[in-house]
Amino acid sequence: MTTQAEKTNQNLPAIQTTLDGALLPKEAFTTSRAIDLPFKMLTLKRRTQWDKLFDGFTQMKAISFVVQPVFLLEYFSQRGYEKIELLVGKGLTDQYKEKMSDTKIRVIEELHEKTSSEDLVLWGTKDEVHTKLYILENDDYARVIVGSPNLSYKASGKGQIEFVVYWDLYYHNPNHVKTLEMFVKEYESHFSDKCTRFMKDLEELFLDLDDMEPKEVIRIWRSNSQPDDLRGYRVIYDELSAQAMQETNNPEDDVITITVPKISSSRKTFLTNTIGAKFDGTDMVVSRSKFLRAESHNGIPQMKLNETIGELRIGINGKMKILNNNCTKEQIFEGLRDIEEYISMVDEATCDAPEYVKMSMMEAIIYSFAAPFANHWLRNKRQLTNYSNRRGPRHLLLIGDGFNGKTTFMRYINWLITGSHLEPVDAKKFTSKEWTSLFEHMQSSGSMMPVMVDDIKKRAVQGSTPALEPFIKSYFEGEWNDRLIYPMILGSSNYTVDGDWAKSRVRRLNFDVQFSGNESDEILINRLISKENTVFSAFSSAYISRLAIGVEYSKDELFNARKIMAEIYAEAGRPIPSYFPHSPPEDNFDVDAIYCFNQVRKHKLVGEKKKKSVVILNFKGRSALHEFRSRLPQTIKYQYSGEEMVIQNREIYEEFMSKGRTSQGSSILSRILRKRV
User: For 383-389, which contacts have Cβ atoms below 8 Å and span 24 or more sequence positions?
Assistant: First the structure.
């Protein structure tokens, strides 16, 4: 039975409010046969449906995602678009360069043409942007699309369904124009100071390297994985070095102020902790004396060449020092004699191949003297072999047992170059983080000083993922160009370097010697690492003079350095020692043959029996067998099982072993005589 209250309610008109609580007008309840919506809806099941929405327009502004920017070129070449602006969120543009590693240079050139003319503007932001908004325009009207699909939507028959709503807004209709303005305002609201333009760095690189071939500039850009923050760090170091290395007559002039580019707060903290930088807005203040200390730069002093006046300068112990000063014939003679005296300690050491070790030590010294000019050698090489051979100069690794004098030898080389006591970089406890920090600094500081890295551990040079592999492989083959200076590495390790990645990038010299460590050696070393030596001064002066007229290119990276060192001997009137490396030691000695000969016939660590045309070798453990096997040339045929190996072509084996027989050292008389020379 219906109550009176219910009858009263039935007679009242229906009341409905809007979302903000206002009463809907009575006309809102008027029924009509059709609803004329200002937009259209579309469920997408095929790519062709999506494509048709974009046909007939010449301009686009969008917030979306594309797998690769190359995809956008189709809108210009196939759809007739003249201008595209796209915002991509979540930092995804950072991945584009990596994905373009295999993209043809011609395609990247086309992208660069579009971006530099601003026909294509691709923005990236770190913000989490999930908006999908497309504003398309032609001469008559604009189309605004809002929905779920990305611009690169494919719907490739895998059941991917998307939904969109779109408006066609005509310019002659004031209401449509006002609606379009509202959409554009919402589009623009997505932009902030976090947005960066993709390929802006390529435009800047083209300006910086305007004298280089476009293909070369693009190759450098494509291979450059360093962030803008690190490039800013490089600009800072260049400016600081330029000011700190200037001569000043005022000892109180210790303050350097520069304007710094935009860098991260973490980079600012690093500069504060290392060189004592103080920041005030865009200005940075640094103490000149602190900047000119090796301790402020991972133990690596700043070394720069002023090519205009031909001066090699270094920041050491808080002061700028010119290294290539004039020196007398007598000073050079004495310096060469001191170097030979250091090397001659090998004659009194325990050493299986003294001539080889002495030649290797002289080679390492010549290598280190030439290292500051290695980038000049590479510039010359790139001009001649740019596209056929992009390898840079090789780093050098001294390999030998622990506590055998490698560290002291590296200290001595540092002394010869700088005239100061400078410790090698200690890599004993280096993890990937420390290696990253070291290489970032080396590739940003612009110093020419060779970097001595001591005690490189097994995990850095061996195994399936050696820590040094990614750094060495990309060192010169990445973004290096002839405007940059990357220092060379002279490292020491108890372990040989394995892997194809190192074969053409790292030279290896065996430091197979055990010095006596007696009092006379210690006194000699202390004297030599405290006494002025002018040989590097003479060497660098001669090398800089050669650079002025052009150095001769040779695959032997030390070709010019060997000639210069030999000329210094001649000018000083001192005879060249027998172990002088007129060519690389590895061309004069077969290190693998020396190892095998010593194992089998000198130290008798491997049993050897000869039977007719074969040789039977017995090892003390499988690891010893495999180490021996790895050193045999491919021409030697063998079979092995357990700890036994059978050499099947005895004649070739004997020829190989004969190369391992070296001189056993000098006589007592020659040792006495060399001390008097």
Answer: 384/553, 386/216
Query: 616 vs 40, 392, 603, 639, 642, CA distance in Å?
Result: 87, 43, 17, 10, 13
Report the candidate in 271, 265, 266 with the shortest Cα–Cα distance to residue 240.
Answer: 271
Half-sphere exposure for 641 (CA within 13 Å, toward CB): 0
Choose among 151, 163, 124, 148: nearest CA to 67: 151
Residue 462 CB: number of other CB atoms within 10 A? 18
Cα(44)–Cα(147) distance, rounded to whole angstroms?
10
Per-residue pLDDT tens digits for 515-524: 988 899 999 9
Rounded to two decimals, what is the model's pTM? 0.71
Q: Strand runs (DSSP E) across 367-436, as ranges?
A: 395-399, 425-426
- Tell me the C-alpha distance between 564 and 12, whole Å: 110
**Low-confidence winner among 79-88, 102-111, 526-535 (lowest mean pLDDT):** 102-111
Domain positions in the chain: 67-126+193-224, 321-587, 591-658
Q: Residue by residue, what is the 3-state secondary structure of 492-553?
A: EECCCCCCHHHHCCEEEEECCCECCCCHHHHHHHHHHCCCCCCHHHHHHHHHHHHHHHCCCC
Question: Phi, psi at residue 562, to the nearest 5°?
Answer: -65, -45
Q: At what angle do helices 354-370 and 406-418 cross, to 10 degrees?
A: 40
SS3 of 357-373: the string is HHHHHHHHHHHHHHHHH
